[in-house]
Amino acid sequence: MQSPLFAHADNQTGERYSLQNPQLLRVALTGRDDVLARKGSMVAYQGSIEFDAEYQSGQERRRRRQTGEGLDLMRCQGEGTVYFANLAQYVHLVDIESDGLTVDSSYVLALDSTLNFQVIAVDSQYGISGTGKYQLNITGRGKVALMTSGEPLMLRVGRESTSINVDSDAIVAWSAGLRVQMQAQTQSSTARSRRGNTGEGWELGFQGEGYVLVQPSELLPPQNARIGSGVAAQFGMGDRGSHGQNRGNDWN
C-alpha cells in the first residue's frame, strides 16, 4: 500500500514527552513514572498500558462543585507509548519549575503525576466567562501539556515594564508569581456592562515578572461535546448544545 499518509508515521524519539504533530501529544512510559491525562483524551497507544480513573477525595469533589475548577483525570501506567489529543487543539509542552503555573483546568491535557495542583482564588469579585474567581495552580517539577484553540501568543511581563492586559476570555495560563487584577473599563457601575458598543469587557492585568499565555480565541473548548442542531447548538448554547449536553464539566 502506498499513500502520502505514511509521511505521518510514528515519530520515534527518546523523549518522554514529544509532539507527534502540533495537535497530537506522544508520551513514552517506561513503567516507573505515571502520567495523568484528561479523561477520554487517549486516541491510540502501543505496548502494555493500563488506564485507571484518578481518585478524587470528598474535599476535592466538593471544591469542584463550589468553584467549577478541577481536573477529571485518568492515570496511565505501564510500558509503551500513548497518544493524547482533544478536539484537534494545539498542544504545548511546559516545564514546571519553582515559579509554578496558574491555568484554567479546561486547557490541561496531561501532566506528570509528580506535580501538585490545587484550586486557588483569583483577584475577582465576579464569576465571569473565561477566567473567573478560581483557577488551577500547578507546582513542583515536571511537565504539563497545555491546549490552545489556534497558535498562541506568549507575552513576557517584566518588573520594569507597564502591566500587560489580556482579555479574560482569551487567557490560558500565567506564571504563578505574577500579580493579577481583574478590571473593566466601562462607564456603567454594573459589573455586567461592557465598554459601550465595542464588544470588549473584562480583562486581567498582570504585573511582576513572568509570562502570560494567550490564545487566538475567546471560547473555552467544549469537552466531550454532543452537538445538536442549529447555530445555537453548534456554538454550545441551549439545551441541545454542548453546554446543555455536558452538565457538570468545566464548560458550565
What does this structure look like?
The chain is mainly beta and 252 residues long. The chain has a single domain (13-191, 200-221), classed as Mitochondrial biogenesis AIM24 (Double-stranded beta-helix). It is built from 3 helices and 17 strands. It has helices at 58-67, 230-234, 242-245, and strands spanning 17-21, 24-30, 35-38, 42-53, 73-84, 90-96, 101-103, 108-112, 116-121, 134-139, 142-148, 153-157, 164-167, 171-175, 179-184, 202-207, 210-214. The strands form 3 sheets. Strands 1, 2, 3, 4, 5, 6, 8 and 11 form an 8-stranded antiparallel β-sheet that branches. Strands 9-10-7-14-17-12 form a 6-stranded antiparallel β-sheet, with helices on one face.
List the helices and strands and how they pair.
Elements: E1 17-21, E2 24-30, E3 35-38, E4 42-53, H1 58-67, E5 73-84, E6 90-96, E7 101-103, E8 108-112, E9 116-121, E10 134-139, E11 142-148, E12 153-157, E13 164-167, E14 171-175, E15 179-184, E16 202-207, E17 210-214, H2 230-234, H3 242-245
Antiparallel strand pairs: 1-2, 2-5, 3-5, 3-8, 4-5, 6-11, 7-10, 7-14, 8-11, 9-10, 12-17, 13-16, 14-17, 15-16
